[in-house]
Design goal:
Number of strands: 53
Strand order of the largest sheet: 3-9-8-5
Length: 826
């Protein structure tokens, strides 16, 4: 065990800190309360056997548990010091021992030490009484030796530092005795040593001092004020035995008649007087009058009536609050003065609270009488009603008045009347009685139901749901009850030869119109109907209104491509010359949309293309143009996917695929064997082969034409002039070429009738021909041109020849393929 002593010179407090070595993981210190912050408690590092380095490396910390952290560790010197002000009285109250328990925690390895800091009491509190002054009442008749216990003082310190004694400053009437309570608590007791006399000394002031046993001694003082109570030896006395007073019979409840004032020479409760009505008074006095027990004021409690009682005698009793008090009595004579205090009385004899709005003028609504209990002029009564009402008063009957209808009634204008009757007597001052009669005007069915508009327009989106609400209309009837209970209906009419009930229905109670079928804008744009409303009166009244139902377009139809006509699924085939210049019309896409407005506004665009920079399309017309010259590296087959989209929400679209075959420049472009050009050495052999093939095909084609012409001639009567044969369509009608290689025109018009040839060759599906003779001449020119053409021509001549030769070969092949093709006239 080690003993450490610390002296605090500034505070003049000697602090002895006692610490023990670690025993079973516990350390104990003792310090006095109220030490300054930073005061030394003990060297916890030494008590734990740790040096300063271990103190930091093992992370020593103080854990206060649920309390505030009152002590902490200084890591520089290992001292445990006071961190917060310690008040033993707040920490442990009146407990004899006060121990502050904290835990010292070490990490690496983990160890827990319990630290108990005992807080020693110092005499830092003086005794104090709960009040600065005590008040004590003692009767002057109290006997000598009477004891009066006082409230004790309080000292939060313990032991000798607590209260040890009480001292009474010297006086002539009292001494002080100390009484033990509970074995330890000391209570001060006053002892009367001589009789008291209130008339001599009405109050005594004593000073009591409470002292503790600390060093230095502290004390507290309280003043005791002793009030000497008087004995009840005097009775109350009235200045007069009889009082007289006059009161108007119109005096209201609470009116003061008189105020009595008795006196008592005693003090305190012996001199406090209570006033009351004595038991000698009659019942009518108890009903009409009352007396205030404290002030002695007599007031009107009930109604005074001169005709019933002209005077009253009131007996009043006065008694003090002392013990064995003696009462005193006086009489108050009250005379009632007659006044005009009775207003006219209005009695309703008969009343028709409900009057029909069609009653004739002069109908009796109510019968009442008016009278006054007063006599003479005060009993004469006159009555009237407010002006500007369709009613009047008739006073032809004695003492009775009749209320008559004086004008036509209209319930829709005013449904009820509050008629105020005013009856006034002739007294001075005159009194008036008012009475309100409520007359209800009953309804008749005199108003036709009305719609808020003369014509309604209902907008309905097509493709609506069957049974959905499409419109609501409301009628108004100023009548009430059954006369205003409305039923809605749709009179039978025809809409496009069908009953209107197959289109719409209406809720008879609410006027909500429901669709009975889905509407289609493309089939019907609008229709009209009548809506009828009928009230439930007798007889019932009706009103009609027209409703124009407008079907709104919905984007429910996708664009339909009408040109070009696809022949291989969704693919159309066109040809284009490799010599086509920029701006040439290649093809035109046309589409329609069954919708209207924005839903039918179409736009064209190229969705996919083999080469995006080669072609362009007009977004408005659908015309496809060449955007640049065609070069050798461009593929011989160009695939375009054209998308047509409307402007609806959401937009709908359609697409068509167009395959463009490049022709010209090299004849082998149309060969199914190879798409590459051959050298000059192979040209004569190919030309010879083509001439023989074309000649053979031409002969066969002519034979077929002759046979078909004969058949057409025989069946002309049956089919008429509109029947079109192959020979007629091909050889009679002469048209300009629409093969897409002529100069582009913004005003291009597609002929209404042209030949479409569907052959086995997908690269050339549609050609237009001027005549079969033109094709034959082109074939002859082609043979002659190839026989005499020299291979030594210059490059310019060769290019022109190749271009002409390509066109002639294409057209020749087209004509020869007609044998195995299907011919259609448009």
């Amino acid at each position: 065990m080690r003993l450490k002593t610390c002296c605090l010179l500034n505070c003049e407090i000697v602090c002895c800190v006692l610490s023990w070595s670690l025993v079973l993981g516990q350390i104990h210190y003792s310090i006095p309360e109220e030490l300054q912050i930073g005061a030394f408690v003990g060297n916890i590092a030494a008590d734990l056997g740790l040096d300063l380095e271990q103190l930091s490396s093992r992370s020593l910390r103080i854990s206060p548990g649920s309390r505030k952290l009152y002590v902490d560790v200084n890591f520089k010197n290992g001292d445990l010091f006071v961190k917060e002000r310690i008040d033993r009285e707040n920490l442990c109250a009146s407990s004899l021992t006060c121990v502050l328990s904290v835990d010292a925690v070490l990490e690496h390895p983990l160890n827990l030490y319990q630290v108990a800091v005992e807080i020693l009491d110092v005499n830092d509190n003086a005794p104090s009484f709960p009040k600065s002054q005590f008040r004590l009442e003692i009767s002057e008749a109290a006997a000598t030796g009477a004891r009066f216990r006082l409230e004790s003082a309080h000292d939060p310190d313990i032991g000798n530092n607590s209260i040890q004694t009480y001292q009474l400053l010297p006086n002539d009437y009292f001494t002080l005795d100390i009484q033990m309570h509970g074995g330890e608590r000391k209570l001060p007791v006053l002892v009367l040593r001589r009789p008291l006399d209130r008339e001599t000394v009405p109050m005594h002031r004593l000073n009591i001092i409470a002292k503790d046993g600390g060093i230095p001694i502290r004390s507290g003082t309280v003043q005791v004020a002793i009030i000497v109570k008087d004995a009840n030896d005097n009775a109350p006395v009235f200045p007069q035995s009889v009082y007289r007073v006059n009161v108007l019979e119109a005096a209201t409840v609470g009116t003061r008649i008189i105020r009595l004032n008795a006196t008592d020479l005693d003090f305190g409760k012996n001199g406090e007087i209570i006033y009351s009505l004595s038991s000698h008074n009659s019942d009518i006095v108890w009903e009409v009058f009352e007396v205030d027990s404290k002030t002695g004021e007599i007031r009107v409690k009930g109604k005074l009536d001169y005709e019933e009682n002209k005077a009253f005698e009131i007996n009043v009793q006065a008694m003090d609050k002392g013990y064995d008090g003696v009462p005193s009595h006086c009489d108050v004579l009250v005379t009632i003065i007659d006044v005009n205090d009775n207003p006219p009385e209005v009695t309703l004899v008969s009343l028709s609270s409900t009057v029909s709005e069609d009653v004739p003028v002069g109908t009796v609504v109510a019968l009442f009488s008016a009278a006054d209990k007063d006599s003479g002029q005060s009993g004469h009564v006159q009555c009237q009603i407010s002006e500007r009402l369709p009613f009047k008063l008739d006073s032809s009957l004695k003492n009775y008045y009749r209320l008559l209808v004086d004008d036509l009634l209209d319930r829709e204008n005013i449904s009820s009347y509050d008629i105020t009757l005013s009856c006034t007597d002739a007294g001075n001052p005159p009194l008036t009685t008012t009475k309100t009669i409520q007359v209800e005007v009953s309804d008749i069915n005199d108003n036709v139901p009305r719609f808020s508009q003369r014509f309604y327009t209902a907008n309905v989106m097509e493709n609506n749901v069957i049974g959905s609400s499409i419109f609501s209309l409301t009628a108004f009837d100023p009548d009430v009850a059954d006369n205003a209970r409305l039923k809605y209906s749709i009179p039978e009419t025809r809409v496009q030869n069908d009953s209107v009930s197959t289109y719409v229905s209406i809720s008879s109670d609410t006027g909500v119109i429901f669709a009975q079928r889905p509407f289609d804008y493309e089939q019907m744009k609008n229709f009209q109907m009548q809506v009828q409303v009928r009230d439930s009166g007798s007889p019932s009244l009706t009103s009609n209104v027209s409703v124009n139902v407008i079907i709104l377009d919905q984007n429910d139809n996708a664009p339909v491509i009408v040109h070009p006509l696809t022949e291989f699924g969704s693919t159309a085939v066109e040809t284009i010359s490799r010599f086509a210049e920029p701006g040439y019309l290649v093809a035109k896409v046309s589409a329609t949309d069954a919708d209207a407005g924005q839903n039918a506004r179409l736009s064209y665009s190229i969705f996919q293309a083999t080469q995006h920079n080669l072609f362009t399309i007009s977004s408005n017309t659908g015309e496809i143009w060449t955007a640049r010259p065609i070069v050798n590296r461009d593929a011989s087959k160009q695939r375009l996917v054209i998308v047509v989209k409307d402007a609806g929400t959401p937009p709908l679209s359609a697409s068509v695929t167009i395959i463009l075959s490049m022709v010209g420049k090299d004849i082998e472009t149309f060969s199914s064997v190879s798409s590459s050009s051959e050298g000059p050495a192979s040209t004569p052999d190919l030309t010879f082969t083509l001439v023989i093939s074309l000649g053979t095909i031409s002969i066969v084609f002519l034979i077929i034409l002759i046979v078909l012409a004969i058949k057409v001639h025989k069946s002309r009567e049956a089919v008429g002039d509109r029947h079109c044969s192959l020979g007629v369509c091909c050889c009679v009608d002469t048209r300009k070429s629409l093969n897409g290689i002529q100069k582009a025109s913004r005003n291009l018009q597609i002929p209404s009738n042209y030949i479409e040839v569907f052959g086995g060759d997908p690269l050339s599906q549609r050609f237009r021909y001027e005549s079969c003779s033109t094709l034959q001449s082109m074939k002859t020119d082609f043979i002659t041109s190839n026989t005499f053409r020299s291979s030594a021509d210059n490059n310019f001549s060769r290019n022109q020849s190749n271009r002409k030769k390509s066109l002639e070969i294409i057209n020749s092949q087209k004509c020869n393929n007609i044998v195995s093709s299907e011919v259609r006239c448009i």
